Amino acid sequence: MKILHLGKYFPPEPGGMEVVVKSFSEATAASFSNYCLVATRTGKTRVETSGGTTVHYLRQAGTFLLAPVLLGLPGVLHRLRRGGSFPVILLHYPNPTAVLALFLSLLLLPKREKIVVWHHADVLLEERWKRALYALFRPIEEFIFRRTDAFVAATPHHVSCSKTFRRFSGRTSIIPYALPDAWFQIGEGEPDAAAKVRERLGGRFLLFVGRLVPYKGLATLVRAADRIPRRIAIIGTGPLEGDLREQAAAMGVADRVLLLGGVDDLRPYYLGCDFFVLPSVSTLEGFGIVQIEAMALGKPVVSSDLPSGVTYVNVHGETGLTFHAGDDAGLAEACNRLLSDDALKDRLGRNARDRTFRKFSYTAMAEAAVPFFSRLCGGSG
Question: Which of 19, 215, 289, 316 could form a disulfide with 282 if both were Cys (CB 3.0 to 4.6 A apart)?
Fold first, then answer.
């Protein structure tokens, strides 16, 4: 079966949606031929094929409202639809560029394919002018939704907390985000690499990985730092880096809050940390793939109690602990509970690894995706 993906970008471009498109393509390669229409920021327009995945890169003309502007997308999409070789179009949402291109194509060529919308997150806009502009775009989205055969989300929480997609809950199936099965295996030299990271950072540490942006809640983490008797390693880049350094210095914790920037290999840091921390304060954090990266290597997680997929991934008392979003005292208390109870930390870490393989491995993704698309297209599933 051939599936035409309408995404935004493709790895190595960073981003959760980008990782999902790639992981789905890899996890289902034995059953599906995946064709991904995506943007490229710098490279030329081109088509590359590897294994069962074809990536069709379109050179972007810029960005608007966090979406790539692809002037050639409507024409390319329409030609592919006219060729009739794709029984399924999988639209990764939110993605206004792709929604508009599909809308224009459907005006010219009647729908013959099955359309699936994969809901990754709601559209959340703070500025009034952006909300007004999006209100004008909503009828185009509704045009697509009315012609959608099925919806997909990564967790039940994505559906229940979504203002946009809650009404489609009866037509929404769950296909989890996932890690390669090989990620769960710890190589022979990796414990030594983890020990070297601990030595370089001055001893045992807690870990955060992600973009340094407001919704990640890093201000909460820095406020809690003086009550947590461990160094906190923060891996990632973003516009808040300078502010976080100033905040840490002002609070006298600059020697314990370690802003490491980007790193090439995260695994030694995951393996070397005591546990992982995700203090996000907004449902813009829809899942937290970094959670399962840490959990798959046996690390429990301390995360905020967002009603999004974050708390579906990290189950309080089973795979880690949660605290009220934005509550630095609650964050410090949860961290100190794990630091003072090695038996609890180890038990939660084992549970985290087991749950991640059952729910969020390539094996689990394929077991959910293959029957779903088979049934959708008339197979037995």
Answer: 215
